[in-house]
Write a structure and sequence with these properties.
Length: 558
Amino acid sequence: MQQLIECVPNFSEGNDLAIIKQITDQIESVEGVRLLNVDPGKATNRTVVTMVGTPEQVVEAAFRAIKKAGELIDMSKHTGEHPRMGATDVCPFIPIANISMDETASYARRLAERVGAELNLPVYLYEMAQPNKDRSNLSVIRAGEYEGFAKKILLPEWKPDFGPAAFDSKRGATVIGARDFLVAYNINLNTTSTRRANAVAFDIREAGRTKKENGKNVLDENGNPITIPGSLKSVKAIGWFIEEYGIAQISINLTNISVTPVHVAFDEACKKANERGLRVTGSELVGLIPLQSLLDAGKYFLLKQQRSVGVSESELIKIAVKSMGLDELTPFNPSERIIEYMLKNASSSPLVQMSLSSFADETASESPAPGGGSIAAYVGTLGISLATMVANLSSHKTGWDSRWKEFSDWAEKGQAIKQQLLQLVDEDTRAFNQIMSAFGLPKSTEEEKQARKLAIQLATKNAIEVPFKVMQLASDSMDVILAMATDGNPNSVSDAGVGALCARTAVMGAFMNVRINAADYADKTFVDQMVNAGKEIEQLAIEKEKAILAIVNEKIGL
């Protein structure tokens, strides 16, 4: 399985788009690396770039970008709101897929060593790439910023990890490291005061603030300043004024979104701002965010409203964006800001991307796929979608306010089944195509014949397992359908009935595909297990449908 690393270099140029383009062109010149996002900030005079690719290629792309940035950016003329120390200020590597943090850190060190040696640039390691934990914190390394580095770099304790221990007035110094996924997030305030924004930032950030009395630091018995911790863990924050928008912001780095998610940071900032007579008006993301972060946020705000969270992925994202005001300053386009959407290849799910009419036309064409397996999966998708609709309608039915959580839970379960069945629409067609590809393999030599035979058998097994999964999910969906027929909004009981018909059809249709593909599979023990299990699921689905339709017909009454 392919290893993937994300790299998010920050370049100290946010206004000259021609310079930014020359840097990103270097990234795009490396095959195997995908440029996901370029996010320039005028007030910060800084551009955050996000790329993803295989480790070797990411190292190469980052090297070329760092080299070009050093040629084009003159730090002696640079000004901006964000702390910075170099033309390429910071360059973190983040593990994305099939790679450990230790391996990711080793690639970061490889890049740092190459930059120091080949570009003669001072480089510091940080976070997980830095073995010396006394100097692994980025804010500690960057303290004093560019202006203070002429003296700082000469101190023995601040000798660079790679490259010369000499101040580079044009390029500054660069920090390269490895870290967990970090969300850069700014919260907008209805004030122009940096001091007021800083006060809220200190209230929430983990490091908090230094305790003071009569304007002086309060010291402990060892003479060290006593700090008052902030309210949120894994949060770094400062306040600043953004001239471009004419407002002050709390600039936040969420270093572990499993500890402090985006929506928790937003709500806590709202609370602390209100306590200081301020109001949060919205927020903005810098760079990309994981899909789950916005889904969790959407559910969080729906739960606060006592509304069903079993709505579509797109609806959850919409709720998250509106609740946190992510579109206050600039439009928020999920396809450009969510990392999974940026990585998604449209060709990987061609059927579910089609319109209804196009899907029907494709099914009716001369091509043997999509066939009954994909249709069974889609019919199952429609069945559970109807049940989920009934659950959502029931969750806010007049007079049923106390039952909203009950129906929300059913709707959430329905959404999960729906999403899995939808993915299997394309997966079934891919399974068929894999069999066809295996039959097309060369068979001239005995070795080729054996390889072809093995490939056919592996593809056939997959073509059995995919529709069997459809059977299981469609059968499970009938539990939701039964609950909605029994307890859901009575005005929608016919929808539950149609859902049951769809689910039963999905089970029986998928089982036909299990059996027809099983006929060509050599492992008869496996075949017997799948067919016997399939018969049980099919019979159970028939019984469930009968029970649901009895309830539906009784309630309809005519």
